[in-house]
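Reopening: structure tokens for the magnesium ion complex, inputs below.
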Amino acid sequence: MLDAVAAAPVTPARAGEALLEVNNIEVIYNHVILVLKGVSLSVPKGSITALLGGNGAGKTTTLKAVSNLLKSERGEVTKGAITYRGENVTDLDPAALVKKGVIQVMEGRHCFEHLTVEENLLTGAYTRTDGAAAVRRDLEMVYEYFPRLKERRKSQAGYTSGGEQQMCAMGRALMSRPETILLDEPSMGLAPQLVEQIFQIVKKVNEGEGVTFLLAEQNTNVALRYAHYGYILESGRVVMDGEAAALRENPDVKEFYLGMAEEGRKSFRDVRSYRRRKRWLA
Ligand SMILES: Nc1ncnc2c1ncn2[C@@H]1O[C@H](COP(=O)(O)OP(=O)(O)O)[C@@H](O)[C@H]1O
Ligand SMILES: [Mg+2]
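Re-run output (same inputs, fresh job):
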């Protein structure tokens, strides 16, 4: 009996305790524009959890709600709660959340253009108090995950490629020694081969450093190959969630998110009303 339990496959998505929990949140911009309509998700410790969906689905808004970056956009969480390690962090400011170990890598990879790659990485260590030697060690750790950054360390970030800037933004986040990284659209604007490289690094960091990832991606195909678990957002609602392997095999996901549709991309909602119509006609 015990043997059977021990032998059962346990994915990190199931094994870990929930580190981050988003409970039924609603987000409104400018007091009137309702964008998230009751989003719930759970990110287990040690997992790579993917937040999927097309452009405008609400992925960035969800990440910003977690990291408390909505205020600067005139956005507000008007319902629900966000907890981290069981503690309500809904109204915490971004710096306080970084101290708790949660850091966001923004969409569009923001590096300081006039600083070198290495200077950019070092700015990521600003909240740390464990001394220069530890920071140096972590710089070497970042260079091990991103050998390309080591080659480019003296280059001004503004003159590096899109892929290098994405690596630089991720490396800088790692320099704060985070427990959780909120990673927004790392694939955006990058060639397929580079996207693959970036995701391989995410996986290595997840396995090597135990960093938990909540990863927003439009590129469902690549995200579901590296994530343990996925949530699919449409128009501010979670329409489906499941183990990544199960989502990859799901016919609707295949059809509408993995580019296997015949006539362009539809949404789950279209599928449902289509099926309803079909039932009516039958
Ligand atoms: N600052 C803002 N003010 C008003 N509406 C916004 C703002 N930011 C995003 N939105 C709207 O919220 C919806 C979700 O956007 P976003 O979270 O960026 O989606 P995604 O990251 O999935 O592409 C979109 O309809 C977008 O136009
Ligand atoms: Mg976005």
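The beta strands are 18-29, 33-44, 48-52, 75-84, 87-88, 102-105, 180-184, 212-217, 229-234, 237-243. The two ends are 49 Å apart (CA to CA). Marking as resolved unless the reporter disagrees.
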